[in-house]
Design brief:
Length: 239
């Protein structure tokens, strides 16, 4: 079967792109090419419309101030993002946007930044930052990343986590949960960039993106030697 275009949307690259989160877009794009498909990367900026026919949504972290800048605009897109998630479009939102995909993020100065409630969770700023390398057990094997957040996220009992923490703080440092999942939408605190070091998880998102574009996912074999080395080194790093 001929392999065609897959549409990638990155949310708010100016305000929400910290600790290399844009690398997740580059990884999805490059791995799509290695699998023989054609990635088309689009960016959502404040005040603009979400383009039609999006096959995967990616968003990153940012300062509290960046979250404040995108808060209202994100609300404008809440319905569209819910529809895409209901439609099993894969999504990956990291840290700042992960928090805003929950119900709210309460800042240290007691301001409530409203989220879109795609995940059943809430986040409260604390006076202690959770920083360091993270290893999480997930359905896609060990996922390795780097966290840096003051917000503590608590999942509703109905909300599934992305995985369970083997090393690091994860959602809150208490309950060993990390991230959240709804259909094929994932929220996580793991920067890194995350996807270059986690090809299994990257290909899981890519598979759903390709299928959403109306194509079959027929992967090529990719040599992940450098990703494997990066994983091995990251695993040995102190916290
Ligand atoms: N402001 C959030 C926190 O510190 C998000 C940080 C981030 O995106 N890295 O909890």
């Amino acid at each position: 079967m001929p392999k065609n275009t897959v549409n990638i949307l990155y949310l708010y690259p100016k305000e929400m792109n910290i600790y290399g989160d844009w690398g997740n877009v580059l990884t999805v794009g490059r791995r799509l090419q290695w699998h023989g498909y054609t990635p088309k990367i689009m960016q959502l900026h404040i005040g603009k419309k979400i383009p039609a026919d999006i096959d995967i949504v990616i968003g990153g972290g940012g300062q509290d101030s960046g979250q404040g800048l995108v808060e209202a605009d994100l609300q404008r897109h809440a319905n569209d993002l819910h529809k895409l998630a209901d439609d099993k479009v894969p999504m990956l939102v990291v840290c700042g946007l992960y928090q805003l995909f929950g119900r709210f993020f309460k800042t240290a100065d007691d301001k409530q930044l409203k989220g879109i409630g795609l995940f059943a969770l809430e986040t409260h700023a604390t006076n202690k930052r959770m920083i360091g390398n993270v290893i999480v057990d997930t359905p896609f094997g060990e996922v390795i990343g780097y966290e840096n957040h003051s917000g503590k996220t608590v999942l509703d009992s109905s909300q599934a986590s992305f995985g369970s923490v083997k090393k690091g703080a994860g959602n809150n440092g208490n309950d060993k949960t990390e991230g959240a999942v709804f259909n094929n939408a994932y929220g996580t605190y793991m920067h890194g960039s995350l996807l270059p070091k986690n090809p299994n998880f990257a290909d899981e998102l890519i598979k759903h993106a390709v299928e959403h574009s109306g194509q079959e996912f027929e992967p090529n074999v990719i040599d992940d030697l450098f990703a494997d080395k990066a994983r091995a080194i990251a695993k040995r790093r102190p916290r």
